[in-house]
Design brief:
Length: about 375
């Protein structure tokens, strides 16, 4: 019988997408929630996020859909284009998935919605609290991201490896009122993803294969000239977008294994703390949101905390592992060169004409998944 969370104290380390969504889900089921966040204020970098229906179903169940709709754009399509700008295939989400909620949102807007809802639900959020070792408490949730202390406490030290890819992110003003769709421009050894955001912005992420080592952090500023030089041969709207970039950040993409151990009966991890992913399926935040729901549902379902956390790990690990694997594969698919690239793009073009719905169906297992009905 659900209800096992009522008045149970829970400490969450980290107030990002995972920690704040977990705070809302746990608090709505009656837990006594404290969030410890390292930053002095809840802020987010100026970048965008694509949210797919597997995540928006959870946000709906948490009562956040009206707030989400007010500050996001419905994503109508994913458009794959060659580096020249020529269309390869346009996956029409509005036509083939009319009921599904795909959204484009500024990260800062999502965090604002989550923080507001968590506080309104009664979660205590303590800022400026950098947690170095797992805090005391009978239930500790590690939502402390890529370099999670709680993950280290559960799994020991692990060393990620550089994938040989660097990424730039940038946002530009964009009032072009184009259709809200995510565009992916694919060139040899590089690709660029861009989509509009509510409020007249456009998000840009550009990935380049390189031998140069880069930091893993998100916040190293770079000269926009480097971004323009790396994508100088790209056509379509790319040159005019990149001409407008006056600030950009660069970072190295590292591969981390999905954590071997997600919980020990007292502590559990979720989001990037458990399964950092390359950004090529746009699922990192979506998985964090799914995790948060499932974790709360499992804990509420049974007073036996060890059994509940084990069930959470058993339900979540295979799916997270599969999605992380799909993101790794996509990096290769976007960056093909020579005859392989021509063949792959031709196959996509034909597939897009003959059976466009079928190309999208390859990802049904990601987007059709409903964490809410799987773990009510
Ligand atoms: C370029 C790029 C594009 C992306 N695009 C998408 C997308 O389109 N769709 C999508 O779903 N995902 C996307 N992602 C992934 C997504 O951003 C992450 O997976 C998601 O933010 C993970 O959330 P999190 O809460 O687990 O971690 P984080 O967002 O990193 O939050 C962790 C929080 O914990 C805090 N913290 C860390 N250490 C401590 C400590 N010791 N003590 C206290 N607090 C601590 C941090 O300050 C932070 O607030 C993208 C990622 C990148 C890099």
């Amino acid at each position: 019988m659900p209800g096992a969370l009522r008045s149970r104290p829970v400490t969450i380390v980290g107030g990002g997408v995972a920690g704040l969504t977990a705070a809302i889900a746990l608090r709505q089921r009656g837990a006594d929630v404290t969030v410890l966040e390292r930053a002095p204020a809840i802020t987010e970098v100026g970048a965008g996020l694509q949210l797919s229906p597997n995540a928006t179903r959870v946000l709906d169940a948490l009562g956040l859909l009206p707030a989400l709709d007010a500050v996001s754009l419905p994503s109508q399509a994913v458009r794959l284009r060659d580096a020249s700008g020529a269309d390869v295939v346009r996956l029409d989400l509005a036509r083939h998935r009319p009921q599904a909620r795909f959204r484009l949102i500024h990260r800062a807007r999502l965090i604002e919605i989550l923080e507001h809802a968590a506080r309104q639900a009664g979660a205590q959020i303590t800022l400026g609290q950098a947690v170095e070792t797992p805090p005391d408490g009978t239930l500790v949730i590690g939502a402390d991201g890529l370099h999670s202390r709680i993950r280290t406490a559960l799994n020991g030290r692990e060393v990620p490896f550089f994938t040989g890819q660097t990424a730039w992110r940038a946002a530009i003003a964009d009032d072009a009122a184009e259709a809200p769709e995510a565009q992916v421009f694919m060139g040899p050894g590089r690709h660029l993803v861009s989509y509009p955001l509510a409020g007249g912005f456009r998000n840009i992420v550009a990935v380049l294969e390189t031998r140069d080592w880069q930091d893993e952090g998100w916040s190293r500023p770079d000269d926009p000239a480097n971004l323009r030089a790396a994508f100088a041969r790209f056509g379509g709207p790319v040159p005019s977008w990149l001409a407008q970039v006056d600030q950009t950040h660069v970072w190295g993409l590292f591969r981390h294994e999905v954590a071997a151990r997600w919980q020990d009966g007292r502590m559990a991890i979720l989001g990037d703390a458990a399964h950092p992913t390359l950004p090529f399926m746009a699922q990192g935040a979506c998985m964090a949101i799914e995790d948060a729901w499932t974790l709360a549902a499992c804990l509420d379902d049974t007073p036996d905390q060890q059994a509940a956390l084990l069930r959470y790990e058993t339900l979540r690990k295979p799916r997270a592992t599969r999605i992380v694997g799909a993101a790794n594969d996509n990096a290769r698919n976007y960056h093909l060169t020579g005859p392989k690239r021509l063949a792959a793009h031709a196959a996509l073009r034909i597939g897009g004409k003959v059976a466009p719905g079928a190309i999208l169906s390859r990802f049904d297992w990601i987007y059709d998944f409903d964490p809410v009905t799987e773990t009510p």
